[in-house]
Specification:
The structure is a single chain. The chain is α+β, with helices and mostly antiparallel strands. The protein has two domains: 183 residues, Ribosomal Protein S5, domain 2; 165 residues, GHMP kinase, C-terminal domain (Alpha-Beta Plaits). The strands form three sheets. A six-stranded mixed sheet has the order 5-4-6-3-1-13. A hairpin with a 7-residue loop joins strand 10 and strand 11. The longest helix has 25 residues. The chain is globular, with a radius of gyration of 20 Å. The mean pLDDT is 97. The protein binds alpha-D-galactopyranose. Alpha-D-galactopyranose binds next to helix 5.
Amino acid sequence: MTFRELFGADPEGVWLAPGRANVIGEHTDYNGGYVLPIALPHRVLASVGRRTDGLLSVASVQQPGVHVELPMTELRPGNPGGWAGYVAGVATQFELPGGLSVLVDGDVPAGAGLSSSAAVTCSVALALRDLLRPDLAVDDLVDVARRAENDFVGAPTGILDQSASLLCRAGHALFLDTRDRSTAHVPLDLAAAGLALLVVDTGHTHSHADGGYGDRRRECEAAAADLGVTALRDATVETVATIADDVLRRRARHIVTEDDRVLEVVRLLTDGSDPRAIGPVLTAGHASLRDDFEISTPELDAVVDTALAAGAHGARMVGGGFGGSAIVLVDTGSLDAVTAAVQPAGGTYRTFVAVPGPGAHRLS
Ligand code: GLA
């Protein structure tokens, strides 16, 4: 299926935006904290062209039978629903009286905690910036893509995924301070150190629009209010220990210790240390997400435990939680053994080695 076959004209361009794996820094983004993602080689290609009939027309190479088409004037949260809502949520933030055609072609696994939705929103946001609003800065596009998720789709995410997709560089992890938006590109050449970052997608999908993610966000806000700080970024291990409510105390403890883990990993990756040293920090992050933040699953815990038992240096779940993927830091020499060890009976998990790829850009 080509854009021309669907829409009767060639697209004005094709834009690429990647999914991401977060090395460390989970649920810190809406607490004003630190994150350290890499862009994946998996990406969305958005072929985009403006129309004259006032319609938004959206199709996906991965869903040949589905073609969503409706007047721009009728777009509102929930209409359209599904993945087309991510495109609509971006389109409604631009002046598009004549309408828009979008063909999406993606290979980021959906619901795997690898930011398939940000790959869609960021590819379309970048396209519309180039076609309509060249004055917009990349940080503005991060906000456009985040608002599409928050206000249109109804998923109360932070800016981790959108920043990773738009700002990451090949061969580097992106160290982002989500409060002041300052960034540093941290070289990450694991292969040169005889290491690989294995991604294990358990295939148990999650949806941020329902339940758990929003609950955690509200609990973090309640803990910050309890401490009298604007965000948990401003709390410390000591102040958090004074929170009376057991659940809120543990949620807050995850955030402050996770911020410290991001800083520790960045230090280890930049001070000449053997990168194997980040392994235990990643594993500590998993324990915190499992025990204090309570967003892991038995499947993800089993991946982490079996990977470590098979000789991995560290492992943790990634993304919003309640399912999805884990990352495993492993010697290249042990990659095959660890990849086999993490598989459940029947070998149903998708696995791949993540090498930091480029952020979003125009392809043609
Ligand atoms: C999801 C959200 C992000 C971030 C992560 C957890 O991916 O979209 O904003 O909160 O979960 O780190």
